[in-house]
Write a structure and sequence with these properties.
- Chain A is an alpha/beta fold.
- Chain A has helices at 3-19, 34-51, 64-73, 124-137, 145-149, 152-165, 176-187, 202-211, 223-239, 264-274, 296-299, 329-338, 340-343, 350-365, 368-384, 412-428, 460-479; strands at residues 21-27, 30-33, 101-104, 107-111, 169-173, 193-197, 214-218, 247-252, 277-281, 309-313, 323-327, 390-392, 400-405, 431-432, 434-435, 450-453.
- Chain A folds into three domains: 1-75, no CATH class; 95-111 and 367-479, Alpha-Beta Complex (Aspartate Aminotransferase, domain 1), CATH 3.90.1150; 124-365, Type I PLP-dependent aspartate aminotransferase-like (Major domain) (Aspartate Aminotransferase, domain 2, 3-Layer(aba) Sandwich), CATH 3.40.640.10.
- In chain A, the strands form four sheets. Chain A has a seven-stranded mixed β-sheet, sandwiched between helices.
- In chain A, helix 4 (124-137) packs antiparallel against helix 14 (350-365).
- Chain B has a seven-stranded mixed β-sheet, with helices on both faces.
- Chain B has helices spanning 47-58, 73-86, 97-108, 123-132, 144-157, 186-195, 218-222, 251-260, 262-265, 272-286, 293-315, 337-347, 377-394; strands at 2-8, 11-16, 26-31, 90-94, 114-118, 135-139, 169-174, 199-203, 231-235, 245-249, 327-333, 350-351, 353-355, 365-370.
- Classes of the chains: A alpha/beta (480), B alpha/beta (411).
- At the A-B interface, helix 3, helix 4, helix 5, helix 6 and helix 7 of A face strand 1, strand 2, helix 1, helix 3 and helix 4 of B.
């Protein structure tokens, strides 16, 4: 048999096999033939291949030895970075009360560094109130407000501040820095919107961070920038129908970082137009502005009901320690369970609460201090403006006066070094000034300068002497 | 609403304000609730005259931050004394205990770091950890083996998603957990952290001044060398009858923190009379006032705590906490018993604190007693009698009476 003959036989038998009927059955009019069987087998093979999972390399967890090795190899960073010369700064050590004149290194110096705006440090009425409280209650209150740490002086102080400001209710915190950090997260959560000034102080920044809300900043004290931001939010609302959320504007009445005054009346007008709520930090303006010393809102004739939440530290004009938050009863009652610094921290020592009560009473009765402070601020500013080499920063009415270098040396560090030299030399001339320091954790990018805190109890002769000394020192340093 | 009108050593007047009608009822009660472990809360014969002197010299406030002009000679003295007391080279003080934690943790660690904290840590530590930007992981309460497991996994896997190695790891634990009364298993936890090169931050808010033979806290009690703890933190509110907190560590660490910590740069400095109170209290504890009142107070608080705990257990109440711990939570379990227990005790002139959700798990409500060195045996017996009576009424004696020490929680 030839090759050709064998192949022909094979193909013939294959054709017969394929066409041979497998059964006598007829399914749906089709004969079940051999090629039907072949096609079925092919379909089954294709289906099987398609259903196979693609190749994946096997997952092998780390063995104990590998983990041990990784742990041995890992080198952590040191707990703190190496110490530089700048870090070893030693602040001046006081040997007496931080009044308008204080004692440093045995020498009496003029103190322009403590925010004792109304000159209440050393006041005898406040000291009497403290003495009485110390004898009755001791120093500490030994417990948070919820666990028998509430003392009658706390309730009295809360009622007094509410009555003084004209708000329905007030809540006390035991530390000024913790007030904003606890009040803001109590009201704002994830998903809420806060528009804050970019120059707000660290306490407020911390509160904004802990709240986990969306934060938008507007240019420092720039009302048109605020309006732009609000308009952006409004437009976005029109475009995307998002769920309703809480919206706040956070500003300070007098900014701690620059001494500028917020245009609160404009801000309130904008907040009503765009339906936001407002947080105002009146730490540096309470007791100082307004006919009755109630703060910036009274000075600008804004009814207190329009400000939703007022927070303030008592460590400035009220010459005490602690902070408070004032507003409607709902606002205050909510913080009694949600304010972290209120629920989980010991309450304000009773003697400090008594000191604050006495301070508020003095502010209510003695209107002269406010006038003295305004006069001193105007006097000092007039004299300081004549110093070549320095520019005056803050608002004309603000008790915080910032001095910056007229011509920058090119870098922040360079400017700070020159200003620090000025401050050190002024201390030798018996004037205590301070260069406002900023922590690396602070997000504020405003320039720092020499910060002068004017007090109602400063003597005009002292202020004049300060301006003259400063002129001399600046001239000698800038010319060298 | 109840409020404290007067703290007279260990008795307090409790004023009952009956809802909305403001009628007052003055009651003199036994105070088993305030954090007054060494009895410095009210007027003290050594401390109060000195505090008043410092008030006269320095006024109630410096109106300034520490770095501007809020540092006085007594602040420096206090920092030196605190460093000496806890056994560290240097220390710094803050005006508020809560702010100490919430401003120091962000200064120590930032993005790229890991904080491993005990599951029952205080809210100030949680606030500080969240504010720092570091990742936070939790380990089972007081369980060194689980801490080791968490550490190994964290180091082996690195940062989530990027898998880069962690910049640093800080383990945060407390000396006494205020809701459990338990002491930290410090020596084991320290050995684990040293093995894996993590840093340890110890919060001794409740244990400083109250635990240890000379009151130096959980390090002394457990025999751990303070040099092994990287950062020691504590507060002055509990054992020293004042306010504020401190951080103690190496000189370089404190220099760095003074440069960076917002609590030092932006917060009003501690009130001078409060500083003097702590200085005087420390002098009494160390015996530098010339008497042995300090040693007696320390022994008394230990004795009182052990006696009270033993008697409560004998009664059949379920008491948590370790030996020598002055914090004594005892279990109510049922949330409905919380107001009942508290009000019935108050009716019988004993003030206790009751705690429920969310400070504790929902079904693990408890009442907490804080013992003071000023409590006399008669006071403790009175307290025990009242608690026994009320526990009978509220069916709180979960164990049979006259049980002795088989239910002691093992350390």
């Amino acid at each position: 048999m030839t090759m050709g003959g064998m192949v022909q036989n094979l193909t013939e038998s294959l054709a017969t096999m394929l066409d041979a009927p497998l059964a006598d059955a007829v399914v749906f009019g089709f004969h079940i033939d051999g090629h039907f069987l072949l096609e079925t087998l092919l379909v089954v093979a294709i289906a099987f291949l398609l259903l196979q999972k693609s190749y994946q390399p096997q997952k092998r967890p780390l063995t104990e030895q590998e983990v041990d090795q990784l742990c041995e190899e890992w080198v952590p960073e040191p707990l703190h970075p190496p110490i530089t010369k700048e870090m070893e700064y030693n602040p001046p050590v006081l040997e007496s009360a931080a009044g308008p004149r204080t004692v440093v290194n045995g020498k009496s110096v003029i103190n322009l560094s403590s925010t004792n705006y109304l000159g209440l440090i050393g006041n005898s009425k406040i000291k009497e109130a403290c003495n009485a409280a110390l004898e009755k209650y001791g120093v500490g209150s030994c417990g948070p407000r919820g666990f028998y740490g509430t003392i009658d002086v706390h309730l009295d102080l809360e009622a007094k501040i509410a009555q003084f400001l004209g708000t329905p209710d007030t809540i006390l915190y035991s530390y000024g820095l913790a007030t904003a950090s606890s009040a803001i997260p109590a009201f704002c959560k994830r998903g809420d919107l806060i528009i804050a000034d970019e120059g707000v102080s660290w306490g407020i920044q911390n509160g904004l961070l802990l709240s986990r809300s969306t934060i938008k900043y507007f240019k420092h004290n720039d009302i048109s920038s605020l309006e732009k931001r609000l308009e952006e939010v409004f437009q976005e609302d029109q475009r995307k129908r998002k769920a309703l959320n809480r919206r706040f504007i956070v500003v300070e009445a007098i900014y701690q970082n620059s001494g500028l005054m917020a245009p609160l009346d404009e801000i309130v007008r904008l907040k009503e137009k765009y339906r936001f709520r407002i947080f105002v930090d009146e730490s540096n303006s309470i007791g100082i502005f307004g006919k009755n010393g109630r703060g910036l809102f009274e000075h600008l004739n804004i009814p207190v009901e329009k400000i939703d939440i007022i927070i303030a530290a008592m460590g400035n004009a009220l010459a005490s320690v602690g902070g408070f938050c004032s507003g409607s009863s709902k606002v205050v009652d909510h913080q009694r369970l949600s304010g972290a610094g209120y629920c989980f921290s010991a309450s304000l020592p009773p003697f400090l609460a008594s000191a604050s009560i006495a301070a508020v009473e003095i502010i209510q009765q003695d209107r002269e201090r406010q006038k003295m402070l305004q006069e001193n601020v105007a006097f000092l500013r007039r004299n300081l403006s004549e110093i070549p080499g320095l520019t005056l920063g803050s608002d004309p009415l603000s008790p915080l006066v910032y001095l910056y270098l007229a011509k920058s040396s090119g870098s922040f560090a360079g400017d700070n070094a020159i200003l620090q030299k000025i401050v050190d030399q002024m201390l030798e001339k018996s004037v205590l000034l301070t260069l406002k320091k900023r922590s690396v954790l602070d997000k504020c990018k405003l320039p720092t300068g020499i910060r002068i805190a004017v007090s109602a109890s400063h003597e005009k002769s002292d202020l004049l002497a300060v301006s003259l000394s400063l002129k001399e020192v600046v001239q000698s340093i800038l010319s060298s | 609403m109840r409020l404290c009108v007067e703290i007279l050593r260990i008795f307090i007047h409790v004023v009952y304000i009956i809802e909305y009608s403001r009628t007052y009822q003055n009651q003199r009660c036994l105070n088993l609730s305030s954090y007054n472990y060494l009895g410095f809360a009210a007027s003290d014969e050594y401390c109060t005259p000195r505090v008043m002197e410092s008030l006269e010299t320095f006024s109630p406030s410096t109106c300034s931050t520490r770095i501007d002009c809020g540092t006085t000679v007594i602040h420096q003295e206090l920092e030196e004394m605190v460093a000496r007391f806890v056994g560290k080279p240097a220390a710094m003080v803050y005006g508020m205990g809560f702010a100490t934690n919430s401003t120091t943790l962000p200064a120590l660690i930032g993005k790229g770091g890991l904080i491993i904290s005990d599951s029952l840590n205080h809210s100030s530590i949680v606030a500080g950890a969240r504010g720092s930007g570091a990742k936070v992981q939790v380990f089972q309460h007081n369980t060194p083996s689980h801490l080791e497991q968490v550490l190994r996994e964290a180091i082996a896997e690195g940062q989530p998603r990027t898998r880069r190695p962690w910049k640093k790891i800080i383990v945060v634990v407390e000396g006494i957990y205020s809701m459990e009364g338990e002491l930290c298993r410090l020596s084991e936890i320290v050995s684990v952290t040293q093995k894996y090169k993590a840093y340890i931050y110890l919060d001794e808010a409740h244990s400083i001044g109250a635990i240890g033979k000379t009151g130096r806290g959980v390090c002394e009690h457990d025999g751990v060398d303070p040099a092994k703890i990287d950062v020691m933190m504590g507060t002055f509110t509990k054992s020293f009858g004042s306010c504020g907190g401190y951080i103690a560590g190496s000189k370089e660490l404190i220099t760095y923190l003074k440069h960076v910590s917002p609590g030092h740069i932006y917060a009003t400095s501690m009130s001078p009379p409060a500083v003097q109170q702590v200085i005087s209290a420390l002098k009494v504890i160390l015996g530098e006032d010339g008497s042995d009142r300090g040693a007696r107070k320390l022994a008394q608080v230990r004795e009182n705590s052990n006696y009270f705990r033993q008697e409560l257990r004998r009664m059949g109440c379920e008491v948590l906490g370790d030996e020598n711990s002055p914090v004594m939570p005892f279990m109510l379990y049922n949330p409905a018993k919380i107001p009942a227990f508290s009000r019935e005790c108050l009716k019988r002139n004993v003030a206790v604190v009751t705690v429920g959700f969310p400070a504790t798990p929902l079904l693990l409500a408890r009442a907490r007693v804080c013992i003071s060195a000023s409590h006399t045996k008669e006071d403790l017996d009175l307290g025990l009698e009242v608690i026994s009576e009320v526990s009978d009424m509220a069916h709180l004696k979960y164990f049979p009476q006259m049980e002795s020490f088989s239910k002691v929680k093992s350390v």
